[in-house]
Write a structure and sequence with these properties.
Layout lengths: L3 E3 L4 H9 L5 E2 L13 H15 L9 E11 L2 E3 L5 H11 L3 E14 L2 E15 L4 H9 L20 E5 L2 H5 L3 H10 L8
Parallel strand pairs: 1-2, 1-3
Antiparallel strand pairs: 3-4, 3-5, 5-6, 6-7
Helix pairs in contact: 3-4
Length: 195
Amino acid sequence: MRRIILASASPRRRELLEQAGVVFEVRPGNGDEVIKSRDPETVVKELSRQKAIQAVCPADEGTVILGADTIVAFAGKILGKPGDREDAEKTLKMLQGNTHQVFTGVTILEKRGGEWKETTFAERTDVTFYPVSDEEIRSYVKTGEPMDKAGSYGIQGKFGIYVKAIRGEYSNVVGLPVGRLFYEAKKMGIELRKR
């Protein structure tokens, strides 16, 4: 059976892969993230590649490493994880009633012919929120849920009720575009689910 390594500590990515029927191990990279661009698509591709490379280890032929990184952008500006509750509230006030973008970069490394072959791509999903009151935002932030999430919210969590529309892959907003991942892996000749 093919060995598959997820180079991410994200519980959401683990859950998405498990739901898709992928058997894998977790081996997050622990190096520093180096960002050389302000373009969201370029940034997530760079970061996913860095994570995948950091997880490279002695491996058998056919081993696959998956690296991923997700960011939220609004009006061309990258929104990271909030520094504190005030920061989370400010971000959510900005996003409410508007459309923003979620970008996830994914790198697939496969050990083939003694070398690591690579495919890197980025997926974009547009998310539109209904107008949300300051009180609703404060109440959500008090739950603590937004504190470890890019853009200060999790679509699969309590703030998901304010989503008006999604254009693109839902799982991308959660943290891993599973449909696109399977498509790109298939193009490389990789079957991610065991047979």
